[in-house]
Amino acid sequence: MKPLLEVNNIKKYFSFQRGILRKKTFYLKAVDDISFNLERKKTLGVVGESGCGKTTLGKTLVNLHKPESGSINLNLDDGTSIDVINANDDEMKTVRRTIQMVFQDPHSSLNPRWPIKNIIGEPIDILKMASGRREKESMVMKLLNDVGLKPEHMNRYPHEFSGGQRQRIGMARALAPKPDIIVLDEPTSAVDVSVQAQVLNLLKELQKSKSMSYLFISHDLGVVHHMSNEIAVMYLGQVVEYGDTDKIINDPLHPYTKALLSALPVPDPEFEAHKKRIILKGQLPDAINPPKGCRFHTRCAELVGEKCKHDCPALKEVSKGHKVACWIYEE
Amino acid sequence: MAEKDVLMEVKNLVTRFYTEDGVVKALEGVNFNLYKGETLALVGETGCGKSVTALSILRLLAISGKTLEGEALFYDDEMKEKLGITTDGPVDLFKLTKKQMLKVRGFTMSLITQDPMTSLNPVYTVGEQIVEVIKLHKGLSDKESKKQALKLIEEVELTPPEDIFIKYPHQLSGGQRQRIVISISLAAEPALVFADEPTTALDVTIQATVLGLLQQLKEEFNSSLILITHNLGIVAETSDRIGVMYAGSVVELVDKYTLFKRPLHPYSQGLIASVPKISEKKETLNFIPGNVPNLIHPPSGCRFHPRCTYATDICKKKAPELQSVENDDHLVACWNVKQVIKDLDKQGGASG
Question: Phi-psi region for residue A218, left (φ > 0), alpha (ψ -120 to 50) or beta?
Fold first, then answer.
């Protein structure tokens, strides 16, 4: 069976102009040639620092951004296959139903003037999933129950809920059209630690009970490790390493992944005491004018030679299910 | 543990905020002591009073805030000299005049805030802002101050210092700005530095370098550091002792190894178990049920009791005090700590 979602070589550039007299157009390559597959009932974690293009990638998948080039294919269970980028209106409805998104900030992604039942009910209306008001309300109640809220919360407004509860509402809204894929963009970065655990557990339970796939975007390697089957590490718009979670965490190959892991503070003092630190030189380069060659070469501790400065390495498989884009492994 | 010199003793700090919605009972008897040269971390979730503790001690609360009770006893001879105090014993910061407090801030105590963009003045170059502190507190000449400022910029690993000196805050990146804030806060070599979520606005790789730098400079200048954060990873990495705060008071205070290995307050236990770690993989995470309480109407007695599995009748009626358990250096505020220990011992080696 084909993977649920096949993403091939997608690119998303943002253009803007700078200069007063001689206007010049610049391109910010937010997503630059990214390919991956998302399997059924699996979670792919996307990690990287701010500005690496993780959120743009997520938004491109749900077609909130139109990519410059590349293809996104959705292979449904009934055998049909949809080209997400060039989908017509009818196909687009299926895409919207199948791929949903939960946004990072639960304070700005819920309409403050709508009661919860309208927020969760909107996709039900648009996709004409209920035959009447009664049925819609019972669907909303069931969704609230699924995410651990009470049916009587239905008539309340977003400001009456805490951050964790709002993220649950965002989740219920995403679940309403019974999707197969949910793009989760930093779902816990706005909630407290003790609440984060509740949200993560809920996400895992829902994935099991509703057999969904997740694209889990986060800057927190610890959280990604907990949630994902596979991890893609991004740096300045490109995937530098991709593979099974255990391989990435226990046997990182790319110098950037190594540095990222070593920089992550682990809540375990004894583990910390034995950890070897890799300190990265310098700052994150300007994304509008990224370094030539391998984009990481300006900060890399394991430079191979001139090659790194001139040619960009491609993502290559080094062992089964483990790909890395680095000249060190290019033999 | 050998006898250490105490730098500051904070006793029974009570702070309130008077808002339109009601009185926010932000701090309810905060107690801790701070040794010379150590890094004490205050951890807790949003609204637990970590930042308010720092601002109360610095006496920098907003107009709506007021510290009603409490003492912050400071043992520092240099400070007494600067203020011209000749009496013996420690100085209570809350008894100082406003003028004296001005001399204390920056000279004896300084604050590194979360967001380096808002704590730097956008219309002055960063060099001028460092020089200002040096001139004010050390009374050096313009030339000497500039020389010192350049040295400080070099110490925070910004090169070349001459170029950075003439830059405005907006010309620097977040990590660079936070380095400048660190150099300003250390300019007068204070005895105590408060760092309030110093790396929350920064990326992981930048965070690692800034934390390393802070630690290194703290040792060089022989200062004590109070590190305020919600990130248990940072705490495990950078601190010596940890104070866990919940809803306005310190509930557990102990060295970091003991806290992570044998936490005794039910809240500390829940907090530590709820964080996913890359050093172990679990199917489901433990979590603390419920939410952080609203401090306008906080729960009676022990403020953690509605979320606590150990809660008994007394917990609802009276707040427990921070007391030593097992040994003198392990302080816990819990009525049922004996039961907690019993349960831990029952689990035996399983929990490590």
Answer: beta
Nearest CA in chain B to A190: B46
Measure CA of the first residue to CA of the last residue in chain A; give whole Å: 32
pLDDT tens-place string over residues B238-295 = 999 999 999 999 999 999 999 999 999 999 999 999 988 887 778 888 888 888 888 9
Q: HSE on the CB side for A147, CA within 13 Å?
A: 24
| Interface predicted TM-score (ipTM) over 0.85 | no
Q: What's the pLDDT tens digit per position in A50-102?
A: 888 999 999 999 989 999 999 999 999 888 999 999 989 999 999 999 999 99
DSSP A13-60: EEEEEE-SSS-EEEEEEEEEEEEEEE-TT-EEEEE--TTSSHHHHHHH
* Interchain CB distance below 8 Å, A265 and B282: no
- Mutate one of A244, A250, A268 to test the B interface: name it (highest B CB count within 10 A): A268
Residue A234, token pair as written in the block: 């991004």
Q: Which residues of B touch A264 (CB under 8 A)?
A: 204, 233, 278
Torsion of CA A232, A235, A330, A317, to 10 degrees: 10
Instruction: Give dist(CA A14, CA A28) in Å, integer.
Output: 5
pLDDT tens-digit readout, A40-61: 999 999 999 888 899 999 999 9
Distance CA A239, CA A52 (A): 9
Q: Which of B46, B158, B204, B284 to mutate to test the interface with A (most CBs of A within 10 A)?
A: B204
- Copy the structure tokens of residue A28: 């910010």
Domains contained in chain A, number: 1
pLDDT of residue B348: 65
With 80 as the cut, is the pLDDT of residue A283 above it? no
- A-chain residues within 8 Å CB-CB of B277? 222, 266-268, 271
Q: Given a cut of 60, is residue B351 above it in pLDDT?
A: no
What is the domain extent for residue A129?
5-330
Candidate from B45, B208, B237 with C-beta closest to A193 = B45
pLDDT score, position B66: 94
The CATH number of the domain holding residue A12 is: 3.40.50.300
